[in-house]
Amino acid sequence: MQDPWGFPNPATPPGSASYYSLRFAPAGLRDDLASLHAWRRQMRDILDQISDGGVAAAKLAWWREELQRTFDGAPTHPLMARLATVIRRLALHPKPFLDMAWSAEAALTHHWPRDFNELSAWAAQDLGALFELMLQVYSGAEGSPDPARIATARRLGAYATLVYQIRDSGWLLRRGRFAFVPTDRLQSLGLKPDDLTLSAGRHRLPRLLSELAGQARALRADIEPTTLPAAIRIRVRLLDLLLAELESAGFDLADQRIGLTPVRKLWHAWRESRRQ
Fold first, then answer.
1. Range of the structural domain that residue 247 is part of
2. What's the pTM?
């Protein structure tokens, strides 16, 4: 019977960027990488699918407790039983898992970043934490990667989170989630968060997203990810292409969601996987 938390799984569905980034990973690593993606997906599903704040907070607390049980050697959820073997084999630490939970909680409680530095720190605790764990899976028996490579993976993960926030900005606004725009930038324009959902403020969104895109690019401008695993390189390459598509649309994203086709993702994932 196929492992339901292995590759592919609901967090790495065929056609997605996560699917193609893992599809070209070494076969022996794909299930481990997919199970890590599934942990993040559980955190994001709480945020994206549960409208009752109290219920969402309770479920997030349960997953934190389950993570502790897993590190104590007594998981109860099938995903965590799967992850327990990865955690033991690679001697993973709980912090990256907790970082992903914290990033979901910050959005759930409408924590508002004061400036881009705070926003990028939050982003690094989302996909940045996942990229760190992916790097550790690739390192395997060689031990923990050096701090410089971890820092690079975290920065690229922050970049990835910001690109997705730009892509999903219209959907996020409709759900009352405005934290992808720092408060200092809104204040400088004399805007309140709700203004971005009204006709009087909607025309400001493309400009704000363009600025955010520039800051996201600056995060990765001096990084050449050739020393990182193919799964991370592929994801970053696809996000570079996605950001270019969003820019070509003038960041007019209030009422549309732009993405890359699966065929295009496959082609560029294959090309990146061939790079040495």
1. 17-273
2. 0.96
